């Protein structure tokens, strides 16, 4: 008998045990689950993976009916491996969450976290967003069970995957959570390594201030060479020195970090000199500027206001020019008046100086004539008397 026929025989026995009759009121779920499990094993050996998966899911349903949560979760976990063999990863995340929930109901959360980890590794390359959810749930479960060391391992996977997806904001939060987990167990080297990773992530976000704060907060956990390199890196970004930043990023301990962080350091944008006046130019293939529907109305109002302001400025300019011209004319007239007055004064002074000798001579001649007239009058008087 081939394995396919043997498997089909187990399926018939399972279906028979699930039937009820007049004397059998309750299905025998335990026997049916065992038969489905045997059938799945036969189909797996025969490499009939689809039938194997179907039998495992039916066995899980039977275990659920008997409240055998552990065996039900185990059957679903086995179906995950069958899906991997089939290459059908679309249902892996859903099955992993179901199996984890059943393990938690049974009281084995660590087993549930292990299933989530297995499923996350399966779909990490093809479905990274769903893998993130699986790793996050695994970390949360273990933190609830007071296992920060194992939770930090899953959170580390979350952080690296977020960096790989260039989701730097969430990656920074994940790294901070991982740092807190390592601080609970006093694992200093891991905190120092994560401090370097956090500085790189903050620089990738373009937030230099946050990078400096992270270094000040957790830099004391780093070794001396790491501190020196981080100080040189941050100083290079402060001074916008691309060569110094490149030299710091090429340090050995950064190159030997996890693959995702090493790649992040290689692709980190280097600081560039920012010019106060950007160079004039037109960007090639640039899209047209957005024009708001209210732009015409606002432009019209701005034009009217500009015209009114222009007219007012013209009037003010004309008045200022007229006032300046009047002031200039008044100044010129005053200067001319002063000049005429000065000239007239000078002329009068010259005439006066010339007339003084003439006046003296006239006065002398008048005095002589008066003297002669007086003598003649006196002679005439004397002659009369005689």
From TrEMBL:
The keyword Transport applies. It is a peripheral membrane protein. Keywords: ER-Golgi transport, Membrane, Protein transport, Transport. Pfam families: SNAP (PF14938). It comes from the Eukaryota. Residues 361-386 are annotated as: Disordered. Residues 376-386 have a biased composition (Acidic residues). PANTHER family: GAMMA-SOLUBLE NSF ATTACHMENT PROTEIN, SOLUBLE NSF ATTACHMENT PROTEIN SNAP. This is Gamma-soluble NSF attachment protein.
């Amino acid at each position: 008998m081939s394995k396919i026929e043997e498997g089909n025989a187990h399926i018939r026995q399972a279906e028979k045990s699930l039937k009820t009759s007049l004397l059998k009121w309750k299905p025998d779920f335990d026997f049916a689950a065992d038969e489905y499990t045997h059938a799945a094993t036969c189909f797996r050996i025969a490499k009939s993976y689809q039938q194997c998966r179907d039998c495992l899911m039916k066995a899980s349903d039977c275990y659920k009916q008997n409240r055998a949560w552990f065996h039900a979760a185990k059957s679903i976990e086995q179906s995950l491996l069958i899906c991997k063999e089939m290459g059908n990863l679309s249902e892996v995340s859903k099955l992993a969450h179901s199996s984890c929930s059943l393990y938690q109901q049974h009281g084995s959360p660590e087993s549930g976290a292990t299933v989530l980890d297995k499923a996350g590794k399966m779909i990490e390359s093809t479905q990274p967003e769903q893998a993130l959810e699986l790793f996050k749930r695994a970390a949360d479960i273990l933190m609830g069970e007071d296992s920060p060391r194992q939770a930090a391992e899953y959170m580390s996977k979350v952080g690296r995957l977020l960096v790989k997806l260039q989701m730097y904001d969430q990656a920074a939060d994940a790294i901070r959570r991982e740092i807190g987990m390592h601080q609970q167990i006093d694992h200093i080297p891991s905190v120092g390594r994560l401090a370097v990773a956090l500085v790189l992530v903050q620089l990738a976000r373009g937030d230099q201030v946050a990078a400096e704060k992270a270094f000040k907060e957790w830099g004391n956990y780093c070794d001396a060479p790491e501190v020196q390199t981080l100080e040189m890196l941050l100083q290079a970004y402060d001074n916008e020195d691309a060569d110094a930043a490149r030299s710091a990023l090429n340090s050995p301990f950064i190159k030997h970090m996890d693959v995702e962080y090493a790649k992040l350091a290689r692709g980190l944008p280097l600081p560039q000199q920012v010019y106060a006046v950007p160079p004039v130019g037109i960007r090639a293939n640039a899209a047209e500027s957005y024009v708001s529907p209210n732009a015409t109305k606002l432009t019209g109002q701005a034009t009217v206001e500009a015209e009114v302001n222009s007219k007012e400025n013209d009037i003010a300019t004309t008045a200022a020019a007229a006032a300046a011209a009047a002031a200039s004319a008044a100044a010129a007239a005053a200067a001319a008046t002063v000049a005429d007055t000065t000239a007239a004064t000078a002329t009068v002074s010259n005439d006066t100086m010339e007339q003084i000798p003439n006046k003296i001579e006239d006065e002398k001649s008048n005095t002589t004539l008066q003297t002669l007239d007086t003598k003649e009058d006196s002679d005439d008087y004397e002659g009369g008397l005689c």
